[in-house]
Amino acid sequence: MIVIPAIDLKDGLCVRLLQGKKEDATVYSDDPTSTAKKWEACGAKLLHVVDLDGAFTGNQKNFESIRKIREAVSMDIEVGGGIRDMERIDRLVSLGVNRVILGTVAIENPELVKEACGKYPGKVLVGIDAKNGLVAVKGWVEVTEVKAKDLAVRMQDNGAAGIIYTDISKDGMMTGPNIEATREMVEYLNIPVIASGGVSSINDIKNLLGIEGLWGAITGKAIYSGAVDLKEAIRITEA
Questions:
Q1: Which end of the chain is more exposed for a tag (fewer CB within 10 A), N or C?
Q2: Are 167 and 204 in contact (CB under 8 A)?
Q3: How far apart are CA 153 and CA 191, in angstroms?
Q4: Cβ 166 vs Cβ 159: under 8 Å
Q5: 75 vs 178, which has greater pLDDT?
Q6: What is the model's pTM?
Q7: Alpha helices, DSSP H, located in the chain
Q8: Which among 72, 148, 66 is positioned nearest to 103, based on CA atoms?
Q9: Torsion of CA 46, 10, 202, 175, to 10 degrees
């Protein structure tokens, strides 16, 4: 399992939200590029970048920040948030982004996911955000009637390279990840699963490590607040 630091972008700033609420934003840095360099220096092999403006509005405002991050670090980068058409996917891939993450569009336009996976094999991940096992979309504002596991299987069949699974009730709350729901998702699929949300301590990293076959875990608030030392977390997973 690899540990993946997160950078959430809002108006060009590096922020974290509490349970995805845009009004509950804490600004951690006005220089996302230096933050990316810092996490790379800690040993990170992959960076998770979310365009929050894109997630809420469907219109990406942080393209310039993403470009600067891509130029500043050599580690792989995955980007999500408001990517809802092929033009934006093309733009990010041409920028050198290693993987794009499709979320809301997986529900609203599954054909785009299939098309993108065909055009860029191995480069398309699907982000599934769940509340009580049901998929939430549009920056978590709307909860659907679709079961997270059912959507995951459909996206696997569409050619997705992996699933990023977030338990919304845990995200940003520093209460620990939903181990059981994550384990179920891993066992249900044949493609890599990345856990997101709830990591609050090194112990949480160890608990996630106990899920056989879990590919990665994203951590955001915990590494910004100092609750988790990223270097230490990476060392444990590589031991």
A1: C
A2: no
A3: 9
A4: no
A5: 75
A6: 0.92
A7: 32-41, 52-57, 63-72, 86-95, 104-108, 110-119, 148-157, 179-188, 202-209, 221-225, 230-238
A8: 148
A9: -140
How large is the greatest C-alpha to C-alpha distance in the chain, in angstroms? Answer: 42
- Mind listing the pLDDT tens digit for each residue in 119-142? 999 999 999 999 888 998 865 668
Helix (H, G, I), strand (E, B) or coil at 212: coil
Q: 24 pLDDT exceeds 90?
A: no
The span from the CA of 2 to the CA of 205, in Å, is: 10
Evaluate whether 127 touches 155 at the Cβ level (below 8 Å). no
Residue 23 to residues 4, 15, 236, Cα–Cα distance (Å): 25, 11, 35
CA–CA dist 198, 179 (Å, integer): 10
Give yes or no for a contact between 135 and 128, defined as CB atoms under 8 angstroms apart.
yes
C-alpha 52/C-alpha 141 separation (Å) is 13
179-197: per-residue pLDDT in tens?
Answer: 999 999 999 999 999 999 8
What single-letter amino acid sits at 67? R
Query: Mind telling me the catalytic residues?
Result: 8, 129
Which is nearest to 168 in space by CA: 200, 206, 201, 141?
141
Q: How much is the CA Rg of the chain, to the nearest whole Å?
A: 16
Helix pair 148-157, 110-119: axis angle to 10 deg: 40
pLDDT tens per residue, range 27-51: 878 899 999 999 999 999 999 999 9
Q: Name the amino acid, one letter, at 144.
A: T
